[in-house]
Amino acid sequence: MQIIKRRKWFYALSLIIIIPGLISLFLQGLNLGIDFTGGSITHIKLPSQVTTAEVREVLEKQGLEKAEVQKSGDEFYLRTSELTQEETDELMAALKEEFSEVVFMSAESVGATIGGELTRNAILAISIAAVLMLIYISFRFEWTFGIASIVSILHNVLVVLGAFSLFQWEVNSAFIAAILTVIGYSINDTIVIFDRVRENMRGTRKQDYEDLVNRSVAQTLTRSVNTVLTSIFPLVALLILGGSTIKLFVLAMLIGFVVGCYSSICIASSTWYEIKTSRAAA
Amino acid sequence: MQRNTSIAIIAAIVVVIGIISYFVYQPLLNNINLGLDLRGGLRVVLEAEELEGEKVTQDTIEKALGILRTRVDALGVKETVLYPQGDKRVVIEIAGEDDPEAAVNILKNTAQLQFMDEEGNVVLTGKNLVDAQAQMKRDGSNEAEIALEFDKEGTELFAKATSENVGKPIIIVLDGQPISAPTVREPITNGQAVITGNFTAKEAQDLAVLLRSGALPVSLKVMEKRSIGPTLGADSLDKSLKAGLVGLIAILVFMIGYYRLPGLIADLSLVIYTMLVLGTMAILDAVLTLPGIAGFALSIGMAVDANVIIYERIKEELRWGKTLVAAIEAGFKRAFTAIFDANITTLITAAVLMYFGTGPIKGFAVTLSIGIVASLLVALTFTRYMLVLFANITKNEKAYGI
User: Fold this and answer.
1) Which residue, A54, B106, B167, B372, shows the most beta carbons closer than 10 Å to its own?
2) Domains recognised in chain B with CATH numbers
3) Which one of B228, B244, B344 has the shortest CB-CB distance to A106?
């Protein structure tokens, strides 16, 4: 395994993936769901020949001109400003009158205050998780491993956020859970490799760090690959067979896991090497 | 240990696991609380707003919760869960009610009853009530009324107010809305009053319950509302369970295909692991949500990971030329730190999620945490024991995928 020798290539590859995502994040941001912005989403099932234009017409008659209508098969998602119970009932009645066969799937309404809190809590939760991990890893290993793990985590989070921004997939509160899981999972991946580095490090001289990292990554490679494989089996199954409500949640984790596997092998170990050798040189 | 004894023990274990899982699986599933997103229902987050003279504190929220609970029981709203969120919110979750929206609308009424004189002075409030009962009007109409009974202090106040206002109306105000304004004909000293309005029997009964349970110390405003139709709930449960099963089978097949004999042990551990997680959830009364199923599926992946780390280690030790039993011992010892540290860091994330998350997200964190702890337990006890047993039967390294 010539991880360290090829590390510049890995850095380049990561940048190629991350930079478009970052640009998109700056230019168009994330497609925030009602959990963050406040508002209502009514999720219904209609006969499949009904078009979004027909549904929009009904919404306009209800005075909901700004509504967004999304169709996926025979399921429709109507995103509107925050509706009261009466307004939802009126909307359902109007839809029933127009299309006769309406199955109520779900209705969600979120006040704008809650959305702001969610964003704050999300940032807080992710920062706290990161700090706690840094502390734990510094305590069990050495701070250099902690820094390298955080770099790798940041890398993975950026890739997932970038992908969601580029494709404008909707972000809701479950997305935060997905991001935190990706963090937990990629740290898990990284730790197993670092555990081996820690073990092999005994008696290693500084000039041998390149070999040390390469050897440790090679020794844990099968495990890294097999683990991500067994973890993505259920995710892929959920993505294909699971309901529409859970798809984006699963997708975020799937991207995060695959990227996490790559970054723990290529980025985390290289970063640790950079920190270690630059300190040795200084 | 004798080879035959080992075979006997393994056979016994396999049979026992098979029988237990066959008989326990369904009852376990039935005993797990499903979240609203899987069974349909309504979840409402209410925020307390200050009423005159009452600040919103933890204490007022606790009081409000107590009153809400009394109302839920008295109104007979089925399968309702109430709990505080933060220090000024109350969450109401109702499952399996025909019209949960209506139930919440009734529950969240402040039900502050006031009696006012013509000038708008409050002469008496609902605080002095000892009883409120709905009854049909005696005039033979289809309308209902509510009979009130005051405590001693209320009786005196009411007697005073009615004697001062003979020939004038006393206005009965509920949550700021005047509901009736009977004219006082003569002083009432027996501590009894009747509220008439255009109530149906049901409305009168609900209102009587609200008045009996007392007024909420705060008024509650809807901040967030999620209602999941039974169709979607059943659909999500069905689809995600199916997907989980397919994912699980893929893992089982992969493990045997790649790791052979140890893979089989890993698969057996997974069966035990699944029972353990479901059992723990049932015992802890934990709620299985849609993200929770994903968390469970994920924790299965992590449970397998512990096995993968151990087996890779054992293989390495074997390549170094150790004997099978020595390799198993060394493999476990060396794999332990990696498994331990990796799981603790994941547990840290889960704990943070549990603290910050609400509803379904919390469900995800709970399921994931239970899964992580269970997978550590199973890997370090059962898997280890089984590997040693199998080592007694065959020393053939091919069976270990070498």
Assistant:
1) B372
2) 3-33+229-400 (1.20.1640.10), 41-227 (3.30.1360.200)
3) B228
Residue B48 token pair = 């307390």
Instruction: Pull the structure tokens for residue B4.
Output: 């035959």
Where would I find the beta strands (DSSP E) of chain A?
31-32, 39-45, 68-72, 75-80, 103-110, 170-171
Of A125, A191, A242, the CB nearest to B341: A191
3-state secondary structure B276-338: HHHHHHHHHCCEECHHHHHHHHHHHHHHHHHHHHHHHHHHHHHHCCCCHHHHHHHHHHHHHHH
Query: Which residues on A lie below 8 Å from B305 (Cβ)?
Result: 188, 223, 227, 230-231
3-state secondary structure of A41: strand
Distance from CA of B307 to the nearest CA of A (A): 10
Contact A105 B297 (CB under 8 A): no
Q: Do B225 and A103 touch (CB under 8 A)?
A: no
Reported ipTM: the value is 0.85
Contacts of B337 in chain A (CB under 8 A): 195, 199
Beta bridge partners of B45: B91, B224
**Interhelix angle for A143-166 vs A269-281, to 10°?**
140
Chain A residues near residue B307 by CB distance under 8 angstroms = none
Residue B185: both structure tokens together? 């004909």
- Average pLDDT per 10 consecutive residues for chain A, totaling 282 residues: 89 95 94 88 87 88 84 87 83 87 86 78 83 89 91 94 94 83 84 91 80 92 90 89 84 94 94 87 61
Q: Do A192 and B226 touch (CB under 8 A)?
A: no
Query: At which residue do the structure tokens 């945490």 appear?
Result: B369
Domains of chain A and any CATH numbers: 7-33+114-281 (1.20.1640.10), 39-110 (3.30.70.3220)
A-chain CB neighbours of B349 within 8 Å are: 129, 133, 180-181, 183-184, 187
State both tokens at B190: 């027996």
Q: Sort out which chain B residues have CB atoms less than 8 A from A96's CB and list them.
A: none
| Beta-bridge partner residues of B90 | B46, B84
A177, A231, A249: residue with CB nearest B353: A177
**Closest CB from A103, A180, A243 relative to B236:** A243
Between the alpha carbon of residue B379 and those of residues A76, B306, B372, B385, the distances in Å are: 45, 7, 11, 9
Measuring CA to CA, how many Å separate A106 from each of A45, A158, B60, B226, B291?
A: 10, 32, 32, 7, 16
